[in-house]
Here is the input.
Amino acid sequence: MATARIGVIVVSDRASRGEYADEGGPAAREYLEQRITSPVEVKVRLVPDERPAIEAALCEMADAGFALVVTTGGTGPAPRDVTPEATEAVCDRMLPGFGEAMRAVSLRSVPTAVLSRQTAGHRGGCLIVNLPGRPGAIAECLDAVWGAIPYGIELAGGPRIEAEGAFRPRGR
Here is the structure.
């Protein structure tokens, strides 16, 4: 089985300027490396909360053949939170069920989850999933949608990824 490439894009003005140590990117990387059992290479990139920078990073990874790209941060209602808009601009098809599931699970922990605007979509064979920036919320949200991620990659024409807790229809 070939090594699948996974991208983690950290969306943060301060982290991209080196003003503080980002915790979201390492949390997402650790989650992915723990769950994926087939060969995987995870690349983390920091970008500012600027739509052109986010779009460029998403396109760069997706068009280079990354199977999955997750973003952390920029999904709230603040004026600089533009990750969902950047994701929608570069995706061929949107998958709104991802955001619905992540918000539903987050509402069990915090009432402000209704303010979150996470989404997901496909760009070619790459699945793009927006996550919040807090490490605990990253794991919580990924747990909510993890079963569908490997199969969603495969359905879009991406590589088969073996992972703990992944859904596989019979005969696959």
User: Anything to note?
Assistant: The domain at 4-155 is CATH 3.40.980.10 (Molybdenum Cofactor Biosythetic Enzyme; Chain A).
